[in-house]
Amino acid sequence: PEDLAVGNTSGRAVDLYRVAFLQRQLWPDDAIPAQDTLIIEIYDHWLRSVKETENAP
């Protein structure tokens, strides 16, 4: 996926997750309109399991 940024499209396909958060859930103290959202895209290989995270330095 990182290669796509420089035009290399010959790599293997990787699952991509698109996740939306209400911005008020992330920043409850800000004066953000209730409907505003933050949408992020996360490639599968960027994720770690909870166990890996707990054991990370």
Structurally, how many domains make up the residues?
1
Helix content: 10-25%
**Distance N terminus to C terminus?**
26 Å
Oligomer: single chain
Helix/strand order: EHEH
Q: How many whole angstroms does the radius of gyration measure?
A: 16 Å
Provide mean pLDDT, rounded.
Answer: 87
Shape: flat
Number of strands: 2
Structural class: alpha+beta
Identify low-pLDDT runs.
Answer: none
Strands of the widest sheet, in order across it, are: 1-2
How large is the share of residues in beta strands?
A: 15-25%
Query: What is the overall number of helices?
Result: 2
Instruction: State the major sheet.
Output: 2 strands, antiparallel
Give a concise summary.
The chain has 57 residues and is an alpha+beta fold. The chain has one domain.
What does this structure look like?
This protein is 18% helix and 25% strand. Strands 1-2 form a two-stranded antiparallel ribbon. The chain has one domain (13-55). With 57 residues, it is of the alpha+beta class. The model has no long low-confidence stretch (mean pLDDT 87). The chain has helices at residues 23-26, 50-55, and strands at 16-22, 37-43.
Which helices and strands appear, and what pairs or packs with what?
Blueprint: E1 16-22, H1 23-26, E2 37-43, H2 50-55
Antiparallel strand pairs: 1-2
Keywords:
18% helix; alpha+beta; 57 residues; two-stranded antiparallel ribbon; 2 helices
